[in-house]
Amino acid sequence: MALGVATRPSRLPRGLRVALLLAPALTVVVVLFGGGFVQAVAQSIGYQPFLPARGPSLDAYRTVWADPAVRASVGITLRVATVSTLAAAVLGVAAALFVRSLCRTRRAFAALLQVTLPLPHAVAALAMILLLSQSGALSRAVSTLGWVDAPVDFPVLTQDAFGWGIIASYVWKEAPFVAVVVLAALSSGVAELEDAARALGASAWQRLRHVLVPVLAPALGAASVLVFAFTLGSYEVPFLLGRPFPATLPVVAYQQFRDPDLAARPLAMAIAVLTTLLVGACAVAYLALSDRLRR
Amino acid sequence: MRRLGAGVLVAFLLVPLLPLLLWAVAGDFRYPAVMPAFSDRGLRLLGEPAVRSAVGTSLLIALTVAVLATLIGAAAGRAIGLYAFPGRRGVQLLLLAPVIVPTLAVTLGIQVYFIRYGLADSVAGVVLVQLIPTVPYVSLVMAASFAGLDVDIEDAGRVLGAGPVRRLVHVTLPAVAPGLAVAALFAFLISWSEYILTLLIGGGTVRTLPLLLFALIGSADLTAAAALSLVIAAPPVLLVGLTARFLTGASPAVVGFGRL
């Protein structure tokens, strides 16, 4: 990205101008976001604002570490985020490649991809409840075929132990997101590159390996990291479509936070910090990996 | 083969919406019926005072957040997009952090301060907390928008004697208008859809549409919940439809879809 940096005569010195422009946004990010994280860490080791000081302790982390319930939550959180991200990536790329192969109807399908994108996640979750629950639309459709007689015979897909309902809701929303991002990467002159490769005698496999994949990979990687981070840290869908126990980490953190017993507060904060570190570690790992692959 | 692919894609995208539409106009809809007995009960519920006040609260908060986040984010975007300054990369990373890290996790820590400074259970507090997910996003979108701005045009305006206000109105704004529109739209949508931050800081006394929807889903009145869903889903779908031509997937704006 080239910067149009001009030497511009102005009344304000440049450094001051930049500082003034950045000040409001940095205030929001540093005070609210950064302050929130620092506070979560402080409160997880026993600090309580506006209350008499106590010594710092790592009890909350010891409790979290030893608690099988929290381990189950880490398991379901990572499982839901990983399966959702992989499914959204595969389906998104497939949809993008399919839409790209169309001629007359390409525009219509590209627009259709944007239908589910702006829907709030709570609405998507309700749609999945009405579609997939034991008395939902899918169960009723199957019962007209005579395959099930009553809701109990239909497999449990919402509020289930694995998290299928949560995954379905995420994939329905995020696969089109991946598709739109990948489709944009594909429409930036890739067809010409492929034609050139074909003219120079490259096989279909070579075209895929040396033209398509290098173009796709950065866009797909960036979209996947966003999807993974979102599905790992989001509250609404797991709350509506998951079980209260074991719930995903953000749901557990909020449950503990709402506990009237203030002793639960450090636990809530420890789980919040753990969630943040999980997301951060995954984002850093992705950056390191993509740097290495690019070399 | 191609027809099959098209069918699968359309089904995947649109079939989950059908039960939502059916339930919204359903009277008696007991298992194993595939079609409901139609009734206007759900749609009539939308005229209730509780729904109307939630629409008002949601609009007020989302519009305020959109305006504030756009002003704050556009200023930061101008600095990042137009100026080379030491620490520019760091500022970009700092603004990227809230896009990646779950907002709920960091907001739990400052809720106590919102209570302390009288911002809890108030619209002002909810607006303030919703700046956390929106400001970084707008900043990044506007940084890309300003990076594409030709500063020579601004300078030409200056040389030709246009004051700062006229330069802004006639030169700068038209150049970054598409980015500005999209950024404001997404700030509005992120606020419009936000549930957990509103609950955490608004304490249930600031009742926006998503809070009402969660209450209805919890009360198992599926007809009311489905009808309200349509009210919540309609503005985003319409707004995105209207701005679709600015929303090429190449722009960083689509990141917003990953946050909704």
From TrEMBL, chain A:
Pfam families: BPD_transp_1. Keywords: Cell inner membrane, Cell membrane, Membrane, Transmembrane, Transmembrane helix, Transport. Belongs to the binding-protein-dependent transport system permease family. The chain crosses the membrane at residues 18-42, 76-99, 111-132, 175-191, 211-235, 267-289. It is a multi-pass membrane protein. It comes from the Bacteria. InterPro entries: MetI-like. It is found in: Cell inner membrane; Cell membrane. Its main location: membrane. This is Sugar ABC transporter permease. Residues 74-286 form the ABC transmembrane type-1 domain.
TrEMBL record, chain B:
The chain crosses the membrane at residues 50-72, 93-115, 127-147, 168-190, 196-217, 224-247. Pfam families: BPD_transp_1. InterPro entries: MetI-like. It comes from Pseudonocardia abyssalis. This is ABC transporter permease subunit. Keywords: Cell inner membrane, Cell membrane, Membrane, Transmembrane, Transmembrane helix, Transport. Coiled coil: none annotated. Residues 55-243 form the ABC transmembrane type-1 domain.
